[in-house]
Design brief:
Elements lengths: L1 E3 L5 E4 L2 E2 L5 H12 L5 E2 H8 L8 H16 L12 E4 L2 E4 L7 H17 L3 H12 L12 H4 L2 H22 L3 E2 L2 H11 L4 H13 L3 H19 L5 H11 L8 E2 L54 H9 L15 E3 L8 H12 L7 E5 L12 H11 L11 H12 L5 E7 L2 H4 L10 E6 L4 H6 L3 E3 L6 H12 L1 H6 L1 H10 L4 H12 L6 H10 L17 H9 L3 H9 L8 E2 H8 L3 H13 L4 E4 L2 E3 L2 H14 L2 H26 L24 H24 L3 H10 L1 H7 L2 H18 L2 H17 L3 H18 L2 H17 L3 H17 L3 H18 L2 H18 L2 H17 L3 H18 L2 H17 L3 H18 L3 H12 L12
Parallel strand pairs: 7-8, 9-13, 10-11, 11-12
Antiparallel strand pairs: 1-2, 2-3, 4-6, 5-6, 14-16, 15-16
Helix pairs in contact: 1-3, 4-5, 5-7, 7-9, 8-9, 9-10, 9-11, 14-15, 18-20, 18-21, 20-22, 24-26, 24-27, 25-26, 25-28, 28-29, 28-30, 29-30, 29-32, 30-32, 30-33, 32-33, 33-34, 33-35, 34-35, 35-36, 35-37, 36-37, 37-38, 37-39, 38-39, 39-40, 39-41, 40-41, 41-42, 42-43
Keywords: DNA-binding, TPR repeat, Transcription, Transcription regulation, Two-component regulatory system
Protein name: BTAD domain-containing putative transcriptional regulator
Family: Belongs to the AfsR/DnrI/RedD regulatory family.
Amino acid sequence: MRFTVLGPVRAWRADAELELGPPKQRALLALLLVRAGQPVALSEIVDVLWAQAPPSTAVNVVHRHVGSVRRLLEPGLPARTEGSRLVRSSGGYRLNTEPDTLDLLRFRQLSETARRTAAAGAPERAAGLFTQALALWRGPTATGVPADIQAHPVFSGVDRELLAVAKEAATTALDSEVPQRLPAVLQQFAAHHALDETLQAQLIRVLAATGRRAEALEVFAAARDGLAEQLGVAPGPELRAAHRRLLSRSAPAVPLAPAEPGHPGAPGPMAGPSHPAEPSHPAEPSRPTAPAAPAVRPAQLPPDLTAFSGRRAELADIHALLPEGAESGSPAPLVISAIDGMAGVGKTTLAVHWAHRIAHRFPDGQLYANLRGFDPAGSMMSPNEALRTFLHALGIPPNRVPADLDAKTALYRSLLAGRRTLVLLDNVVDSSHVRPLLPGSPGCLTIVTSRNQLHGLIASEGARPLTLGPLSAAESHEALARRLGADRVGAEPRAVATIVQLCGRLPLALAVVAARAATRPSFPLSSVAAELLASRGNLDAFAGADPHTDARTVFSWSYRALDPEAARLFRLLALHPGPDVSTAAAASVAGRPLRATRALLATLTGAHLLAEHAPGRYTCHDLLRAYAMELVQDHDTDETRRAARHRMFDHYLHTARTAATLLAPHRTEPLPLSPPRPDAAPEHLDGQDRAEAWLAAERTVLLSAVEHARDHQFPRHAWQLAVTLELFLDRRGHWQEQTAIQRTALGAARALSDRLGQAHTHRTLGFAEGRLGRYDEADGHLERALELFGKLGEGDGRARTLRAMAFLANARGRHQRALDHYGPALDHYRASAHLSGQASVLNEIGWTHILRGAYERALTHCRQAVELHRRIGDSAGEAAALDSVGYAYHHMGRYEHALTSYRRAVAIYREISDRYLEADTLTHQGDTRLAQGDLATALADWRLALEILQELNHPDARILGGKLRQYRQWPHPAPARGG
């Protein structure tokens, strides 16, 4: 028998091609071929064959198709015959075949041999092997099965694997002679992946290297046109660089390697004369690779200001900009810019108010981002960060968000195409800051606020400008009346006129003065006016041509009313990276006791210099923060500022360390932390629930603190904090955030010439890159970490790195390589008597044997892990090993044994509050219930797991949600739930 699945699904007995039957039967064979040699659970078969709602007869249909496939492959052979090609296995089915009979297995065998050959220093031979592997490809995986089935991840995952090897082949070839057939093979792949800029760039380089520059230019032109037509974007940096090099004729011509018989570049056995002739297939249009987003309706607008007043003329003007028929139709794109540069003039307030008034016209939701273009601390939100936030809001999980800006923009615009969405982009610094965030859909409305006139958007994007000046005198009077009451304002018209004049009719200044006056209802407004007159002339940032528009008077008046301790705290909080600060962190910044700090914060919120936007969490308007930054620079010494930052970074590092240790006491990296300053006050977290909650609440601050520590000469805090956060971010699925802070940490460790810091950050960064599928980058970082730990004599560090390398090897299906890494990792742990590490590796070895189908061997290792974890009191490790035991039993068909292990694991996870792993085990438990035929209980387990994952905002929630949707339509009884 011979089979192909890298393209059309086909099968031959001797030289006769077989008729594979109806579409779902053909799809079943394709699934078994893609998973050749591995058991495919019945639940997975149903999942693949019925992507939407499986019928109640689905299991019977599968059994019928299995029988037909078995008779097709082995006519006349009774079922369950020894040595049968298609056998029952672990609650499902397994198709046994060999690399010389299945193109996918042959492809993987050749690719792995090519990698080993390249590593051995023979890139020419490796390039030939890669070419031979790629020559087996005949089109998208499982061509010929129904389109909705072919789109399933089990098949698209093979397409991604092929694409990755194509890129690997190009890279290898460019380091050596280019095999004769490689350009043609790459051209075939490029035709199917027209929007993959990396592949197009590599094809250009390969064609240029072989002297085919005219063809390379055609490739660039086609790629550029395709990106413009389909995504509305220009080529990215990599594609542009390949084009520039091509134009400069700097790419050296590399001779084609001869394709001699027996040479790696010659046709392999699956493509040679002995293989039945196959028709050529025309290039199909490229299938989109962007992850499909669920129907998500974001509603991100900030609350409308209840005391909003005035701005009637401006509201009428901007409302008139909406095109005719917008009430029932789709409005044309619109950009509104507040351009007169006056800070505090009410741009955001007006934009938010108008957005709320027209939000009903945009049924697909509202997106909002404060881009912090004028943040005094320099923490401007980049378009990259804003796009990541928007993609999350539109339903894209963290691990599916592209890494680079152009790819994010393309995906964002694709998701908004055809939608009617309102996008509010606040505090933009210039036109380039906002361009990547503009939707391309004519149904979307974009509102932009900025202190600068956005000439670029007006000229190139057709933005409609609006100049927003100070309030009129009447509007200012109305604003005060809305806040202080009409009677109080009406009783002192002269004082009110003075206040309006001294506030420069600036909305923010009026609001601050009104808040202060409201807290002193017995004081006449004339006293407020007198204090403003006595303290005018400060805050240069708000001084314009008209001296009456100087807002420093307002802020200084509020500030000077503070007692010295509150004033000191207000100044020092300007050093915090934001976006908000907790009571405990404020206490560390100030170097004061928690109780005293709480009282000071109450004073600041009462004066409207801070806002308590959530219980115990405080934020500050950017104008007030700018004022505080001026004050701390003018009134506090360099030593005072450095000491405050030192206390702050100590607070976050040591509290994060406590939280990480509580969550995983046996898995926290040993780091050489210096003790915190005596006047810092790291939090004393009491239990795992509190630790998890603290990390979740402070996540954004902690990410900012890593970069802030590096930028303010605290590099050791930067890398140690990043490494401390690794496990938490990994469990939550925040892998892009993980790579960002670990890169920052690596830079900080390098600046210190700290080899231990570099080793740790290379390891954490390598593992995070692997989580995102960037395996080349991952391998480089992990190999460097292994080298550094070795030079430092850090055996446990080498063990942890080897475990990361093994994990990523398993993720790529390289199970023997994973075992090769686990062996020395176990030796290192034994040498250091690290029992928890030994137990963890034993469990991971067992898991690898499960992936290989060696379930008895897996049980031996996993049981040893359970006993060792139990002996040392490592509850989390014990639960993980019990989950592995259950998983092995499940695949052996011993379902009650599996459920016993799962129940014990779930009980432990609940006891130690490990929510993510509880959900993971509940998912496995549901799979076993399904294998027993108990769908109702399986659904209950999956629902509970999904609730946890959704609560954690974990990317796995999308996958489990899809499984639930597929199975919950099945009719089922509601059995009593035990245990």
